[in-house]
Amino acid sequence: MGRSISAVGVDDLVKAGLAIEEAKEFHRVLKETVSGAKGSDPREVWRELLARKVLKPWYPHGLHQLVYYSVYADWDPSTNGPPIYWFPSLYQSKQTNLGRLLENYGSKILGESYKDPITSFSLFQKFSVQHPEAYWSIVLKELSVSFHEAPKCIFDTTDKSKHGGTWFPGSSMNIAECCLLPRSHPRKEDISLAVVWRDEGSDNSEISHMTLKELREQVMLVANALDAIFSKGDAIAIDMPMTVDSVVIYLAIVLAGFVVVSIADSFAPKEIAIRLRVSKAKAIFTQVIIHFHVT
Predict the structure, then answer these.
(1) Distance of alpha carbon 195 from alpha carbon 244, whole angstroms
(2) Where do the structural domains in the chain lie, given as residue ranges?
(3) What whole-number distance in Å separates Cα of residue 57 and Cα of residue 211?
(4) Half-sphere exposure of 87 toward its Cβ, with a 13 Å CA cutoff?
(5) Strands 235-239, 208-211: parallel, antiparallel or unpaired by DSSP?
(6) DSSP track, the chain
(7) Which tens digit of pLDDT belongs to each residue from 48-103?
């Protein structure tokens, strides 16, 4: 990836965007921190740099890149995977979806081997590969995924012509329904918070909220309108910025049984036309953004 962290000098730090005096002080702190890390494992060196908050948010991005890639200069991604950037605390890990799942099921599936979401992650990953039926049954329950037609099994490998097997054979579902309907597990009620947003360009305004019930009502309005005009399976395009309206529209298209054609709102007209033609879209949702300037 480049030169090692021990070879990074003051000149390199200046080239990365620091003033000369600032670079000298940073270099001193950097050497002190690297020497204080536990061993030469780059993960421990990077962990120590994070713990001491050597890299400040206001430092140039180039400096962050220089230090990161220098720490992992001898790291082999093909063997070790991507170089680790962030080390969550035990508390943070338990607040994630995977952490909560492990806290609920870890002892049941791993027995006394289970310690915590971080320590036992590799064991759980191994379990998910060796026991896909058990693992995915848990995941489907935790994600509140419900099927119109239940799968015959989780993973079918009997048809050798299908390389990699078939997941959830024979099943049918509508993922928008799973998002919008209240569930008892995990606890998801009509008053539960569903969307949080702030309009672009309104950084000083209040944050907006939408409950699950409000979201479902908005989605149903659009879905019913589409259902009255188009046929199931028709392609409907969206060429909009990521706003709460685009979220409502996306879910409505899926809920009503149509195919979503997502088009980046940054695309030029020619590129938009190509995607509409290739997808054979029957309609498109878009919007005109008008900026008002008051004098």
Answers:
(1) 8
(2) 5-80, 90-180, 193-286
(3) 34
(4) 13
(5) unpaired
(6) --S-GGG--HHHHHHTT--HHHHHHHHHHHHHHHHHSSSS-HHHHHHHHHHTT-S-TTS-HHHHHHHHHHHTTT--HHHH-SPP-----HHHHHTSHHHHHHHHHHHHHHGGG---TTTTHHHHHHHHHH-HHHHHHHHHHHTT---SB--S-SEE---TTSTT-EESTT-B--HHHHHHS-BTTTTB-TTSEEEEE--TT-TTSPPEEEEHHHHHHHHHHHHHHHHTTS-TT-EEEEE--S-HHHHHHHHHHHHTT-EEEE--TTS-HHHHHHHHHHHT-SEEEE---------
(7) 999 899 999 999 999 999 999 999 999 999 998 899 998 888 999 999 989 999 99
CB count within 10 Å of CB 48 equals: 17
Q: What six digits make up the tokens of 61?
A: 């991005």
Residue 295 has pLDDT above 60, yes or no: no
Task: Please confirm whether the linkage preceding 82 is cis (ω < 30° from 0).
Answer: no
Q: Tell me: pLDDT of 234 over 70.
A: yes
Rounded CA separation 205/121 (Å): 41
Counting every residue written for the chain, the total comes to 295
Q: Which of the four pLDDT bands, split at 50, 70 and 90, describes residue 1?
A: low
**Among 48, 26, 25, which residue's Cα sits nearest to residue 36?**
48
User: Phi/psi at 144 (nearest 5 deg)?
Assistant: 60, 40
Distance CA 228, CA 32 (A): 69
Q: Residue 292 above 50 pLDDT?
A: no
CATH 3.40.50.2300 at 193-286, yes or no: no
**Token couple for 9:** 């000098």
Task: Say if CB 283 and CB 237 are below 8 A apart.
Answer: yes
pTM of structure: 0.71
